[in-house]
Amino acid sequence: MIIDGKKEAAILREEIKNEIANLKKKTNKVPGLTVILIGEFAPSQIYVRNKEKNSKEVGINSNVIKYPSDVSEEEVLNKIEELNKDKNISGILVQLPLPDQINKEKVINAIDPLKDVDGFNPVNVGNLASGYKAIVPCTPLGCLLLIKKVEKNLSGKHAVIIGRSNLNGKPMAQLLLKENCTVTIVHSKTKNLQNECLKADILVAAVGVPNLVKKDWVKNDAVVIDVGINKVDNKIIGDVNFEEIKDKVRAVTPVPGGVGPMTIACLLSNTLECFKAR
Ligand code: NAP
């Protein structure tokens, strides 16, 4: 089975759109999302444009604040402070990566945890790790929703996650642990990666190495989620050798058209949740 992330994201966006329309009828208010974009980094420009377009389509009041790449850290922090206080803003997102003069940690810490739609603020990271209510980073949240489309009951399943980044691997592990999976995280220093992957009922690859996961790395009944986005010969491919494994495993996400669309849909969902919580 090929998990159609585009289709699932469209379903989720439709649900969000309907809920926002209903809330608007009741309260005459809609969620507001502000994205801060610094510099001219081409992929960031594309991501932000997509986020803005998708937000508007579901009825989120979205706007982008753009700064040149030499903007000072103080100016960005002051803007975040202003947005934190603004009652019309439900969510704040600072598009990464940031230029060298701006400290990523300071920026992430400055965002009000209740408006932290990326789920990167340590308050949300800590809440997720403690099993409390938290805003969850969009990509792992999207992965979990896709996994659940195939496997409703994850309890007791062995999940293996390749990658231990704050963005993907670690929150993915927390989410799967919360679902009562037995979780193994593997990374660049792991010995015998293939053996670890072969234990996986659920395999999530969030690495950034094209075609790392091969046919003889996966069980027949595995559910494989490919987070990787790698540009090879002008084509986007994942961390999983899709062609090799697609007829072997129980389910797999393609790249593109798998996790990517769910990431943006989950950003919209997080923005809506922040709006409702306030
Ligand atoms: P990252 O911060 O670079 O982390 C990569 C992780 O992979 C690290 O933990 C690293 O181990 C591990 N790793 C690297 N090479 C390895 C190898 N040969 N064997 C085993 N583990 C290895 O990357 P990230 O931000 O998590 O992103 C991962 C991928 O997801 C990238 O391709 C990125 O573009 C993509 N991505 C996709 C989406 C989406 O919406 N689909 C969103 C975000 C990111 P160490 O910790 O030991 O260095």
Strand order of the largest sheet: 5-4-6-7-10
Number of domains: 2
Treating each run of at least 4 consecutive H or I residues as one helix, how many helices?
10
Helical amount among residues, as a percent range?
40-55%
Task: Report the CATH topology name of the largest domain.
Answer: Rossmann fold
Strand tally: 10
Give the C-alpha Rg: 19 Å
Question: What is the straight-line distance between the termini?
Answer: 40 Å
Question: H/E order of the elements?
Answer: HEHEHEHHHEHEHEEEEHEH
Q: So what's the overall shape?
A: globular
Task: Give the biggest beta sheet.
Answer: 5 strands, parallel
Going by CATH, what is the homologous superfamily of the largest domain?
Answer: NAD(P)-binding Rossmann-like Domain
CATH architecture of the largest domain: 3-Layer(aba) Sandwich
Oligomer: single chain
Mean pLDDT: 97
Low-pLDDT stretches: none
CATH class annotation of the largest domain: Alpha Beta
Class by helix and strand content? alpha/beta
Please report which band the strand proportion falls in: under 5%, 5-15%, 15-25%, 25-35%, 35-45% or over 45%.
Answer: 15-25%
Ligands present: NADP nicotinamide-adenine-dinucleotide phosphate
Identify the notable features of this structure and list them briefly:
globular, alpha/beta, 16% strand, Rossmann fold, 278 residues, single chain, binds NADP nicotinamide-adenine-dinucleotide phosphate, 10 helices
Could you characterize the architecture of this molecule?
This protein has 278 residues and is of the alpha/beta class. The protein folds into two domains: 27-112, Leucine Dehydrogenase, chain A, domain 1 (Rossmann fold); 138-259, Rossmann fold (3-Layer(aba) Sandwich). It contains ten helices and ten strands. The strands form three sheets. The chain has a five-stranded parallel beta sheet with strand order 5-4-6-7-10. Strand 8 (230-232) and strand 9 form a beta hairpin. Helix 2 crosses helix 10 (259-277) and helix 6 (138-150) packs across helix 10. It is globular and about 50 Å long. The model has no long low-confidence stretch (mean pLDDT 97). NADP nicotinamide-adenine-dinucleotide phosphate binds at residues 139, 162-165, 167-169, 187-189, 193, 206-209, 212, 227-230, 259-260, 263.
